């Protein structure tokens, strides 16, 4: 995993995935808000436990109302998107103990003061 891979995954995610899945990956994208069925949130426990291959296969073959993106997204970019999805998941579910001390103190202070 490299920073370049995550940056590429983010770029491709924002183009191909965020319109339905939203920039946060919570399934509340602009397309869904305009009446298209909401996709599942990447933050659901089921998808947090899903193997990486699941996301790759869904992009490759489609799933439910989602069409295949195999003709639009290269295999290496699909894997980069998978890496970015994992980063999104971690961003919402990282254990506080895994944060660096400065970030942990900032979070604890903000929580004590009632700030987000």
Low-confidence stretches: none
CATH architecture: Orthogonal Bundle
Count the beta strands: 0
> What's the structural domain tally?
1
How far the N terminus sits from the C terminus, by CA atoms, comes to 30 Å
Nearest-integer average pLDDT: 93
Label the overall shape.
globular
How many individual helices? 7
What is the C-level CATH assignment?
A: Mainly Alpha
Please, could you describe this protein's structure?
- By secondary structure, the protein is mainly alpha-helical.
- The protein has one domain: Orthogonal Bundle (Cytochrome Bc1 Complex, Chain D, domain 2), CATH 1.10.760.
- 59% of the residues lie in helices and 0% in strands.
- The chain has 7 helices and no strands.
- The chain has helices at residues 3-16, 18-21, 30-33, 45-49, 52-61, 75-93, 101-112.
- Helix 1 crosses helix 6 (75-93).
- The longest helix has 19 residues, at 75-93.
- 17% of the residues are buried.
- The model has no long low-confidence stretch (mean pLDDT 93).
Keywords:
Cytochrome Bc1 Complex, Chain D, domain 2; 116 residues; mainly alpha; 7 helices
Question: How would you briefly describe this protein structure?
Answer:
The protein has 7 helices and no strands. It has 116 residues and is mostly helical.
């Amino acid at each position: 995993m490299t920073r370049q891979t995550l940056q590429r995954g983010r770029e491709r995610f924002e183009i191909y995935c965020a319109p339905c899945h939203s920039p946060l990956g919570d399934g509340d994208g602009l397309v869904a808000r305009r009446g298209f069925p909401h996709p599942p949130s990447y933050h659901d426990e089921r998808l947090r436990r899903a193997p990486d291959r699941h996301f790759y296969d869904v992009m490759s073959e489609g799933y439910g109302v989602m069409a295949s993106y195999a003709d639009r997204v290269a295999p290496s970019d699909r894997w980069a998107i998978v890496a970015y999805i994992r980063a999104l998941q971690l961003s919402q579910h990282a254990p506080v103990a895994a944060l660096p001390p400065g970030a942990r103190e900032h979070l604890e202070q903000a929580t004590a003061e009632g700030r987000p």
